[in-house]
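Field log, afternoon session.

UNIT: design team B
ACTIVITY: writing a sequence onto a fixed backbone
BACKBONE:
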C-alpha cells in the first residue's frame, strides 16, 4: 500500500499562496488515514470470528456424530492396546495337499524382569530355575541382583510355565504378548518346513520370520497380511510322509546306517509327495548348527537336496537310454565286456565276471561297469554332458526350499573321455538324490523332464523332451528286469511291479580318496513298472549288515529291502490297487485259411 504524506509539498505551497492554513491539510490527511486503518482492523476481526465459528461448528458436528454412533452401537468392554503390537503380523498357515495343518501360529508370552522392582531377587531366581531347568542359576542371580534395569529370561513360554511364574508372586517378573510358530506334528517333515524364529522384537510383540526350509523360501508370502486367510499348500501328504519316515527310520537302524533319505515323486506333475532326511529334528525346538566337525553329521543337514553323492550304478540307465535314443544301439545289441577295460593307467573292472559280451539289456540287469563304459565311449563326452544337462544333473535342483541351492553338483574339472566312462556308471559326478529322482521321472513319464516341486499342482507339468517315448519304454523294461532277474531282487512287491536300479558307490574321504569299508547305497525305483505313477529313491549312508554269515554293504542287500517295505506300505495310501502285471503279447501272424 502506498501511503499519502500528511503534508504534501504541492498542496502546502498552493495553500500558502491562497492564504489558507497548511495545518488544515495535515489534519484532513491524518483523519483519512485513521479511517482506513479502522476499516482494515474491522475486516481482520470479522475474518477471525468467521474461522472460529466454522471450527466450533465442525467440532460440535463431530461430537454429535460420535454421540449418535455410541447411542446406536452395542455396548462392549474397553480393551487396552500394546504400543509395540504393530510388528507382530499374523503369519499364514502351511498345510499339506489335503489341507491338514503342518505349521500354524500360537499365542504365547515372553518373560522378562525389572530387577529394581523385585522383592526377593534370590528367591525369584531359585524359583525360575525350578520352572526352567535350562537356565544358568548363577548367571540369572547375577543379572537379577545387578544394576541392569531390564533382563530377558525367556523369549517364549507355555501357558503352564506362565502360571507357574505367576504363582511366584514377584511384581518384578513381567509377561509380554508373543505369537510363535507351532509345528503340531513335531519332527514330521522337519527338513521341508525348516523352522521359524524371531526378527524384530520388543517386550510387547515379536516378528516371526522363517529361518530354513519353506518357511524361509516363502517368507514374504507367509508374512504378507493379505495372505493370512490363504495357507501355503504343499505337495506333501501327511499320512504318506509319516509312513515313509517310520519305514526309513526302522530301515536305517536295521542296516546300521548313519543317515538316510527317501524321495517319493509324482512322475507327471513333479510333486514331491514325501521327502525324508534322517537324522531329523523338531522344528519347535530347532537345534543350533554345528560349529565344528562334518556338517553332514548335523540333524539340520538335508540329505535329500544338500547331500551331494556319487550315486553309483543308478546312472547306468541314463547311458543306456542315451545310446538307444541316439540310434547307436538297441536293447538287444551285443557289447564287448572283456576286461579289465584300460584307459591310460586306469582300469575299469566289473564286480563279477559276466563273460565276453552282453546285450545292452543284460548290461543293465547285470550292472556291468565295462559295458556301460563302452556305451559312453560311443556316445562321447560332449553329447553325454549335454544329455545330463537336459536332465537337470549339472545345476542345483529347482526344489523350493532354501537349502536346495546348496546342493550344487560336483562336476569333473575336465570332462574327458575317461570322465564320460566313469560317469556312465556313477563315479566322477556327484549329485543329490533329488537330482536322481527327477532323472528317473523323465524315464517313467515317457521322456519329458519334470521339475521336482514342493507346491501342490493341479495338472501335469511336462518339461522339455529329453528322450523319445520308445527309448523311455525300453529303459523301463530294463529297470523291471533288474528287479525280476538282477541285482534288485529283494525289491519285488507283489501287485505293484517295481522297476529300478541299484547303486553302490565308495564313500569319498574329506582329505581325498575313498574309504575301503564305507559306501553310499542307493535304490532308484518306479512303480507300477508298466505304467509308472511314482518314483521312489532311497539312499543309505554307510549301511552294513551281516547276512548269510557275511558283511553286506551293497544296495541290493540294504537300500532295496527298505524301499520294498516302503512301497508296500505307501502304495495303498496312494490309492494304487494291487494288480496282475500285464504279460507280453506273443506276436501272431495272420494267414489265410
Amino acid at each position: 500500500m502506498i501511503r499519502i504524506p500528511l503534508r504534501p509539498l504541492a498542496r502546502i505551497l498552493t495553500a500558502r499562496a491562497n492564504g489558507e492554513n497548511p495545518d488544515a491539510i495535515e489534519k484532513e490527511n491524518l483523519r483519512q488515514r485513521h479511517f482506513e486503518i479502522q476499516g482494515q482492523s474491522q475486516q481482520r476481526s470479522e475474518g477471525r470470528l468467521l474461522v472460529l465459528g466454522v471450527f466450533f461448528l465442525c467440532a460440535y458436528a463431530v461430537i454429535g456424530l460420535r454421540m449418535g454412533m455410541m447411542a446406536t452401537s452395542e455396548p462392549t468392554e474397553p480393551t487396552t492396546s500394546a504400543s509395540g503390537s504393530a510388528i507382530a503380523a499374523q503369519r499364514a498357515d502351511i498345510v499339506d495337499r489335503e489341507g491338514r495343518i503342518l505349521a500354524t501360529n500360537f499365542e504365547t508370552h515372553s518373560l522378562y524382569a525389572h530387577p529394581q522392582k523385585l522383592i526377593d531377587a534370590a528367591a525369584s531366581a531359585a524359583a525360575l530355575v525350578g520352572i526352567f531347568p535350562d537356565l544358568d542359576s548363577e548367571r540369572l542371580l547375577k543379572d537379577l541382583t545387578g544394576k541392569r534395569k531390564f533382563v530377558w529370561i525367556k523369549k517364549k513360554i507355555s501357558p503352564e510355565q506362565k502360571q507357574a511364574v505367576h504363582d511366584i508372586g514377584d511384581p518384578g517378573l513381567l509377561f509380554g504378548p508373543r505369537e510363535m510358530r507351532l509345528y503340531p506334528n513335531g519332527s514330521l517333515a522337519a527338513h521341508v518346513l525348516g523352522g521359524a524364529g524371531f526378527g524384530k522384537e520388543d517386550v510387547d510383540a515379536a516378528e516371526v520370520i522363517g529361518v530354513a526350509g519353506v518357511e524361509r523360501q516363502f517368507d514374504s508370502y507367509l508374512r504378507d497380511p493379505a495372505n493370512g486367510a490363504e495357507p501355503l499348500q504343499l505337495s506333501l501328504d501327511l499320512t504318506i510322509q509319516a509312513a515313509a519316515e517310520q519305514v526309513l527310520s526302522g530301515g536305517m537302524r536295521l542296516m546300521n546306517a548313519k543317515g538316510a533319505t527317501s524321495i517319493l515323486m509324482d512322475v507327471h506333475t513333479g510333486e514331491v509327495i514325501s521327502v525324508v532326511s534322517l537324522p531329523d529334528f523338531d522344528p519347535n525346538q530347532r537345534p543350533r548348527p554345528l560349529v565344528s566337525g562334518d556338517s553332514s553329521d548335523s540333524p539340520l543337514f538335508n540329505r535329500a537336496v544338500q547331500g551331494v553323492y556319487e550315486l553309483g550304478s543308478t546312472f547306468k540307465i541314463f547311458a543306456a537310454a542315451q545310446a538307444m535314443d541316439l540310434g547307436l544301439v538297441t536293447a538287444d545289441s551285443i557289447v564287448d565286456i572283456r576286461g579289465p577295460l584300460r584307459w591310460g593307467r586306469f582300469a575299469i573292472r566289473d564286480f563279477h565276471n559276466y563273460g565276453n559280451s552282453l546285450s545292452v539289456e543284460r548290461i543293465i540287469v547285470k550292472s556291468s561297469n565295462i559295458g556301460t563304459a563302452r556305451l559312453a565311449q560311443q556316445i562321447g563326452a560332449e553329447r553325454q554332458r549335454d544329455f545330463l544337462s537336459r536332465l537337470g544333473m549339472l545345476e542345483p535342483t529347482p526344489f523350493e526350499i532354501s537349502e536346495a541351492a546348496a546342493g550344487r553338483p560336483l562336476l569333473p574339472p575336465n570332462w574327458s573321455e575317461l570322465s564320460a566312462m566313469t560317469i556312465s556308471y556313477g563315479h566322477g559326478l556327484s549329485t543329490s538324490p533329488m537330482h536322481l529322482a527327477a532323472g528317473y521321472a523323465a524315464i517313467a513319464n515317457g521322456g519329458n523332464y519334470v521339475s521336482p516341486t514342493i507346491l501342490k499342482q493341479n495338472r501335469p507339468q511336462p518339461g522339455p523332451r529329453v528322450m523319445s517315448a520308445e527309448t523311455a519304454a525300453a529303459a523301463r523294461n530294463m529297470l523291471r528286469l533288474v528287479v525280476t532277474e538282477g541285482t534288485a531282487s529283494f525289491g519285488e512287491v507283489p501287485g505293484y511291479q517295481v522297476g529300478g536300479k541299484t547303486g553302490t558307490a565308495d564313500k569319498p574321504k574329506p582329505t581325498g580318496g575313498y574309504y575301503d569299508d564305507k559306501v553310499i547305497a542307493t535304490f532308484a525305483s518306479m512303480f507300477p513298472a508298466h505304467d509308472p505313477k511314482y518314483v521312489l529313491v532311497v539312499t543309505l549312508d554307510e549301511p552294513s549288515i551281516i547276512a548269510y554269515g557275511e558283511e553286506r554293504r551293497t544296495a541290493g542287500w540294504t537300500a532295496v529291502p527298505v524301499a520294498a517295505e516302503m512301497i508296500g506300505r505307501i502304495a495303498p495310501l496312494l490309492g494304487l490297487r494291487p494288480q496282475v502285471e500285464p504279460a507280453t503279447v506273443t506276436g501272431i501272424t495272420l494267414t489265410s485259411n
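LOG NOTE: DSSP finds 17 helices and 18 strands in the chain.
NEXT ACTIVITY: expression trials, pending approval
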